[in-house]
Amino acid sequence: MERRLGPLVLHTARLGLGVHDAVLRTDVAVALSADVGPFSATVEDIGVRLDVGAADPDAATPMRAKLGFKAPKGIGFAIDSDTVKGGGFLELDVEAGRYAGVLELVTPSFGLTALGILNTKLPGEAHGWSLFFALTATFNPPIQLGFGFVLSGVGGLFAVNRRLDELAMRDAVRGGNLDSVLFPTDVVAEAPRIFATVEAMFPIAKGSFVFGPMIKIGWGTPPLVEAMIGVFVSLPRPLIIALLGRVRCALPTPEKPVLILNMDVAGSINFGAGTVGLDAQIHDSSLFGLELTGAMAFRARFKDRPGFLLSVGGFHPAFVPPADVGKLARMGMSLRLGKQENILVTLGSYFALTSNTLQFGAAIDVSARVGPFKVAGGAYFDALIVYKPFHFTAGMGAYFSVSWGDWDLLAVRVALVLDGPGPWRAQGEATFTIAGFDKSFHFDETFGDKIAASSERAPVAARSALPSRSPPTGAPSPAVSPRCACATSRPTTPGPSSLPPTPASAFASVSPPSASPSSRWGRSSPPSRGRSTSRSSRSPAVPRPSRPRSKSCSRPPPSSTSPTRRSCPLRPSSP
Questions:
Q1: With bands split at pLDDT 50, 70 and 90, how would you rate the model's confidence at 544?
Q2: 133, 172, 381, 471: which is deepest, by most CB within 10 A?
Q3: How far apart are CA 486 and CA 566, in angstroms?
């Protein structure tokens, strides 16, 4: 409905009935707006409220009624004139004691953005409050600093009875949500996302404070490179210093860029825990039309088992990263060809270095669709080296398939794995598929001396992830590649795949080997062979074409819309 009364416009009317704290509540509320010249305002869900309930025992009447004002859920305004444009929004929740608002104003010479969240009630507290407030200003034209550098904006934030959450900060990097804190734009439309990100990064914590400045700096006119940087301090305990940044690059010119690079970065120093962390994520980037993806992470610990971890593009598929690092997108690029972009070429790679391991690998995949037919092929290589006790695992393989719908008409897969020492073990598999029928060939050779278990070396069984020979059924062997997890009924040799996962807190362990070889991966034993993948909500990893699957595979197919295939993949889609 829409009814106009002078400058006022009635949009909706609502009658609500409900029970709240043993009281019958009736609400009559409306949504109104008004336009006066360049100014407009909106009020949501404002009206009157009637509460009817049982009276006190000593009251003259058995029932009591209370009529009062119902506060609106939201108030918004907008202005559109020759000198000022923008708007704001205030979200009110009187019962929860939460008030959140945003403001954005733009003039020909500067822009102003404000964000605030006030809580008058704290969880588990009879009395208390918390506040978050951020203010940024941008300049047009920017202020010249010399040597081609310009200052485009300044700002800052402070929070009372709130703290900085490092894990949520890293999640914001992976999700591409740092713009909720660093110079946000279009704040009225993006208010729900901004509020959610801010409240996750700066949760309520009585007695804690967060503050820090922000700057927006560029190089060139117009800027070829632009960076938004914020330095924030959270205190008193734990004392954390955090650096948040967004980098945008368009070269050689913003009008005709060859390279478009957008990267979010977040780093922190936690003096209480004695840790340093840094995360970066590439999103919405390209080079000569090739889509770029990737993520990196760095961790260092100076207290309680000192050590470090560095990963660019993720980890070996058999490695279980710490929980605070999680899955990282592969460093890679993808290209679509053809008039209908029906040909996809993807490249992915990774490199990781920890206190006790060296990991690296790469993969290439090519797929093409012609009507209901799909042709796919690719190759990969993975290597994992554990320093103490020394252990080496390397795998490589390739595949080619021609499929119709969800059925493989022709497929060839080859995989090789070398694992050792103590003893060395080499395995290989070749699988051929014709019209849905599979035929596999295997070899499994062991050579070299066994290494006895001691306080300095882990037992051979605990360091070898390769199971016994395949059963006579001809089913593909899961041992041929750590990337393949096909189901078989035969028992396997005990190995890291059957051991409990590595605790996240052990990412920097340098303590002597323990009785349990998998209790840590800092400097004690080979890691668990649980598969590690990486995805990002904002910047997904390089896409992989779907691969043929076997009757014996226990995992679902790469595409949730496709039924299970009849052939086992050489490896699942790499992140």
A1: very low
A2: 172
A3: 12
- Quick one: CA torsion of 119, 122, 123, 125, rounded to 10 degrees? -160
Residue 90 has pLDDT above 80, yes or no: yes
State whether residue 28 is helix, strand or coil.
strand
- Mark 510-524 as b/e (b = at least 16 C-beta within 10 Å): beebeeebbbbbbbb
Q: For residues 330 and 352, give the distance between their C-alpha atoms in angstroms, rounded to a whole number.
A: 11
Which residue do the tokens 């609106």 mark?
A: 72
Closest CA to 459 of 513, 383, 405, 379: 513
What is the C-alpha to C-alpha distance for residues 517 and 524, in angstroms, rounded to an integer? 6
Which of 328, 395, 389 minimizes the C-alpha distance to 518?
Answer: 389
Tell me how far CA of residue 495 lies from CA of 163, 241, 318, 378, 466, in angstroms.
Answer: 42, 41, 12, 29, 7
Cα 243 to Cα 159, 227, 334, 478, distances in angstroms: 16, 12, 31, 44
Average pLDDT over all residues of the chain: 77
pLDDT at 60: 61
343-358 confidence digits (pLDDT tens): 899 999 999 999 999 9
Residue 83: count other Cβ atoms within 10 Å of its Cβ. 10
Residue 478 CA to residue 467 CA, distance in Å, equals 8
Measuring CA to CA, how many Å separate 86 from each of 7, 73, 98, 421? 20, 21, 24, 67
SS3 for 414-441 is EEEEEEECCCEEEEEEEEEEECCEEEEE
- What gap in Å lies between CA 529 and CA 355, rounded to an integer? 18
For residue range 198-240, list pLDDT tens digits in order: 999 999 999 999 999 999 999 988 889 999 999 999 999 889 9
| Rounded-to-integer distance, Cα 458 and Cα 498, Å | 15
Amino acid found at 252:
P
Closest residue by Cα to residue 296 from 320, 325, 322: 325
DSSP 85-138: EEEEEEEEETTTTEEEEEEEEE-SSEEEEEEEEEESS-TT-SS--EEEEEEEEE
Q: What angle do CA 242, 245, 249 make, to 5 degrees?
A: 165
Lowest mean pLDDT among 17-31, 63-77, 498-512: 498-512
Q: Do 546 and 556 touch, CB atoms closer than 8 A?
A: no
The C-alpha atoms of residue 285 and residue 295 are separated, in whole angstroms, by: 12
**H helix count then E strand count, the chain:** 3, 26
> pLDDT tier at 69 (50, 70, 90 boundaries)?
confident
| Dihedral angle sign, alpha carbons of residues 359, 312, 478, 542 | negative
Q: Indicate the SS3 state at residue 183.
A: coil
Tokens of 15: 């009658």
Strand, helix or coil for residue 236: coil
Among the listed residues 266, 386, 243, the one whose alpha carbon sits nearest the alpha carbon of residue 315: 386
